[in-house]
Amino acid sequence: MSAMKKLINDPAHVVADALRGVALAHPELRVDHEQKVVYRGDAPVRGKVGLISGGGSGHEPLHAGFVGPGMLDAACAGEIFTSPVPDQMVAATKGVDGGAGVLHIVKNYTGDVMNFEMAAEIVAAETGTEVIAVVTDDDVAVQDSLYTAGRRGVGVTVLVEKIAGAAAAEGRPLADVAAVARKVNENGRSMGLALTSCTVPAAGKPTFDLPDGQMEVGIGIHGEPGRRRVPVASAAEAAEMLVTPILADLDYHSGVIAFVNGMGATPLIELYVLFAEVAAILEKSGVGIARSLVGPYITSLDMAGASVTLLRADDEILRLWDAPVRTPGLRWGI
Amino acid sequence: MADTVDTEALHAWIREFARLIAEHKDLLTELDSAIGDADHGINLHRGMSAVVEVLEKESPGRPAELLKRTGMTLVSTVGGASGPLYGTAFLRMSAIAGDAETLDGADIAKILRAALDGVVARGKAQAGDKTMYDALAPAVESIEESIADGQPLGEALDNAVRAAEQGRAATVAMVARKGRASYLGERSAGHQDPGATSVTLLVAAAARALA
């Protein structure tokens, strides 16, 4: 096996070193290097609902890259692919509390859910801050039943952070912002595939073996094995494998936000090839695209592959999607 | 040996658990890479190293204090699912230990039962879900029976280790219904659960250090 090739200094310090880079590249953000929390520079914003998220690192730009006006107020960075700890969410919650309560946006992974739960318990015990958690679970690759941990939170998380962030920026109360976040999650579905595995720096070798000529369909964003392994297909066939289960899971009609996401190592040109195929399938299915997003926004380190997220959007969602946002990862209208 | 466990003995238990985790770090991570995300050994090792350091710095007075500090440190350093699960287990043990200066066999059975209840409350796992519960629950039941039968703590803990080991072995055939392993469905069968493996080390450490 070939040795790991990564632009790092020390596998144990990747997250801390990256946060130093974030702080230097984005002086409008404030980075607490001790707690590994990234804040918008003017947090807490008085009278505005605070939005925090967080999760294991390795999915950049998610979450720290989405901190800024119109999106998140703070993001907690865990170790690579490992949930942050409650201390971080407690610090972030206190740091963004502008008096209108705080929304926790949590991807549905056992560790993330438990750590955010413990943080909410600690916040409730220590402060009067009202906290509501919204858990994202949009990955149709996972059977949603009593017999699993439920669907994973993947691509829709980016859309929830943008749209709920816009609702909070409008000055809406916590219950409304939470309702918007839930609505986005309930109306969005995702499916992903991997052409290669990814290598966690501390592990030094690929998380799973994917032989030449094979791809894994139904992967998550942590190198978890997927639903099935098939020979590498064309972009047109891959689009079918990703879009068909999404359309089978939810009744889509015109007015979707179509999001084609890169897993980290797949170039943008391939994402556009895939997007064209996704759009063709949607057109055939009578599903009109209202807005689109193409690029690596919720990644899995150096994994090659892509995911598709389709969000049923009503006028409110589209208006909030179009609202100004200014973060390192998403920026328009400002 | 007398069936009295003081803070120093509990401290030895924690140190022994940390040593066993360090020794089995690669095994735990290997088991986790088969059905999870390949970090169980790394994360627990980081957490238990931090616990040992914290307890070295300032030795805690009562058992409850030591257990609480252990739990808080694990919650703050482990992350993932193991942080809240092990952390909650130790915090619940601490709550049960109360003001006691020493614990007897019945107390040890009680705190281990509280640890199990904490794991269930946090993780919502049931028997057969292929989690740490499947090794910890038989161990707790075993120690409760042994103590009720009047066996000395040392024997009770030795029996508990065997019960945990049997529970751990039983996880191999199970299909995971909790945690990341559940995403694999039937493909999770045939692999020993990493959480059941690490919690068996916790019981084994108790058998070596507490009696």
TrEMBL record, chain A:
<dbReference type="InterPro" id="IPR012736">
    <property type="entry name" value="DhaK_1"/>
</dbReference>
<dbReference type="Pfam" id="PF02733">
    <property type="entry name" value="Dak1"/>
</dbReference>
<dbReference type="InterPro" id="IPR004006">
    <property type="entry name" value="DhaK_dom"/>
</dbReference>
<dbReference type="GO" id="GO:0019563">
    <property type="term" value="P:glycerol catabolic process"/>
</dbReference>
<protein>
    <submittedName>
        <fullName>Dihydroxyacetone kinase subunit DhaK</fullName>
    </submittedName>
</protein>
<feature type="domain" description="DhaK">
    <location>
        <begin position="10"/>
        <end position="332"/>
    </location>
</feature>
<dbReference type="GO" id="GO:0004371">
    <property type="term" value="F:glycerone kinase activity"/>
</dbReference>
<dbReference type="GO" id="GO:0005829">
    <property type="term" value="C:cytosol"/>
</dbReference>
<keyword id="KW-0808">Transferase</keyword>
<dbReference type="InterPro" id="IPR050861">
    <property type="entry name" value="Dihydroxyacetone_Kinase"/>
</dbReference>
<keyword id="KW-0418">Kinase</keyword>
UniProtKB/TrEMBL annotation, chain B:
<dbReference type="Pfam" id="PF02734">
    <property type="entry name" value="Dak2"/>
</dbReference>
<dbReference type="InterPro" id="IPR050861">
    <property type="entry name" value="Dihydroxyacetone_Kinase"/>
</dbReference>
<dbReference type="GO" id="GO:0005829">
    <property type="term" value="C:cytosol"/>
</dbReference>
<keyword id="KW-0418">Kinase</keyword>
<feature type="domain" description="DhaL">
    <location>
        <begin position="8"/>
        <end position="208"/>
    </location>
</feature>
<keyword id="KW-0808">Transferase</keyword>
<dbReference type="InterPro" id="IPR036117">
    <property type="entry name" value="DhaL_dom_sf"/>
</dbReference>
<dbReference type="InterPro" id="IPR004007">
    <property type="entry name" value="DhaL_dom"/>
</dbReference>
<dbReference type="InterPro" id="IPR012737">
    <property type="entry name" value="DhaK_L_YcgS"/>
</dbReference>
<dbReference type="GO" id="GO:0004371">
    <property type="term" value="F:glycerone kinase activity"/>
</dbReference>
<protein>
    <submittedName>
        <fullName>Dihydroxyacetone kinase subunit L</fullName>
    </submittedName>
</protein>
<dbReference type="GO" id="GO:0019563">
    <property type="term" value="P:glycerol catabolic process"/>
</dbReference>
